[in-house]
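re: that chain from earlier
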Amino acid sequence: MSVRDERAADERAGTRAVETAPKSLAATKSGQAELERSPPLHPQVGCRGDPCGRPGGGAACVVKIGGSTLDGVAGVLDALAAAWRAGYAPVVVHGGGPIINEWLRRLGIVPQFVAGRRVTDAATLEVACAVMGGVINNGLVEELVRRGVPAVGLSGLAAGMIRAERAGDDHGLVGLNPQADAAPLRALLAGGFVPVVAPLALGPAGECLNLNADDAAMALARALNADHLLFVSDVPGVRDKAGAIIPRLTARAADALLRDGTITGGMIPKIEACLTALEDVPAIHIIDSAAATDLRGVLAGDHAAGTRLVVR
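^ sequence. v structure.
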């Protein structure tokens, strides 16, 4: 067969392949319209002057999804997908406490907590790594991808992204005072991806440490110079002594509530993380999953929900 004959055969084969291949999204008018409505894959991370004029403006926002909200997380993930399409650059950090507890009990291990943080021995750490870095992280990535969001799962161990001091003997293999390197997140966000981060950290000797997800979210938000930090919890905000939600909470007032015992349990590390993050992050909210279904409204300031933490 001559070169000309070979080329002709190749062209005929290519034509048949195109004709018989299933039509992709881009090959249909409706699909093309959908692609035109979608944001480009390279958002201007942290730049309020988004060239496409989208309401999010490329603003970076760290959204911590509490482990207690994972059973009803569908609405929150819908809202995250909508925020991403509107031009926000979200980073998702997740907890996993209840699911870790369930797996520990299956193995005959009794979960223990001190001051709202999990006591972590070697066996507990193994379970925490498997559940948070595997079961929960992969599940959230799967659900976001199903919604058209290019989510990428990783933990704080990836590229040494989060490093922490090791807690004292009361807590065991737990990280405290975490510091984060935002470079891996910036690389993912610049590529249009949505990072989904499991709260694990490297210790001083390079060992894996369990990290409270509130602390992980705080460290990443500070390193990223995020515009927003949101904690999605199973409670609608911080309560005063009478049980009413406090819509606006100053750093001084939050510290007083910690000292007098009004803030207890899992809210303690959350507020401590908020107080540290206020040094670098201008907008911090504690909301429940119902309010998080209007994530764009909360980010834009159109939906007053939960508790907003402010410096003064």
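The first helix runs from residue 3 to 20.
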